[in-house]
Write a structure and sequence with these properties.
alpha+beta, Alpha-Beta Plaits, 9 helices
Length: about 210
């Protein structure tokens, strides 16, 4: 049985995902999507490398690799602001960083739309990815999410994912060189996404 609340450890890969509470939407327009990624860059990117992501109206997915403890210590505002007597483990820092990330977005979203209450389902899901095969399939699953949910016919048509950043020639915070290396080259990356479906990975991981 998969552990959907895996312990967060340094230099490990994780598929992180969550959704909105009930029938609520996380993103109602382009401004919301962009602000969410901006807050992600502020709270999570200093602590984790991003290999893939996809934002859909009511949920999101990220594939991340946690940085080393040394880099986490240097990059974490949570540690820098902690009292010298505080002892925080990597898992504590990452969990707190995600909590602050979600809270910052929720507060801004609630203020913009004059709503109250929790926006996200509590305790985000994270699955540790332990093999290269699962890593490749997780990246593909994330990019094919808009296709499987019938938002677009091709992954490159959805602008709120890392797919276009990986195949494009513009600057990105996604670690595209590591992703392309996993697939062998960019042609294999594109071809793999054409021959697989999101359901393949979902069935393997028993995603809920």
């Amino acid at each position: 049985m998969k552990n959907y609340k895996a312990k967060i450890e340094q230099e490990k890969y994780y598929h992180v995902y969550n959704r909105a509470n009930g029938n609520e939407l996380l993103f109602r327009n382009d401004v919301n999507y962009k602000f969410f990624l901006k807050q992600y860059q502020t709270y999570i990117s200093p602590l984790a490398d991003t290999l893939a992501y996809c934002l859909l109206p009511n949920h999101f997915h990220f594939l991340i690799k946690i940085k080393s403890d040394k880099n986490i210590i240097e990059g974490s505002d949570i540690l820098n602001n902690a009292k010298t007597s505080d002892v925080l483990k990597t898992s504590d820092v990452l969990s707190e960083s995600f909590r602050c990330f979600f809270m910052s977005y929720s507060k801004a979203f609630n203020k913009m739309y004059e709503r109250k209450g929790s926006l996200f389902i509590p305790k985000f899901n994270r699955i540790q990815i332990t093999t290269q095969d699962y890593l490749i399939n997780a990246i593909t699953y994330i990019h094919l999410n808009p296709v499987s949910h019938n938002y677009v016919k091709n992954p490159e048509d959805w602008k709120y994912s890392s797919y276009s950043a990986i195949i494009g020639n513009f600057p990105t915070n996604v670690f595209k060189s590591e992703v392309i290396e996993l697939f062998g080259d960019i042609d294999n990356f594109i071809e793999y996404h054409k021959t697989k479906s999101a359901e393949d990975y979902a069935l393997k991981m028993n995603l809920k």
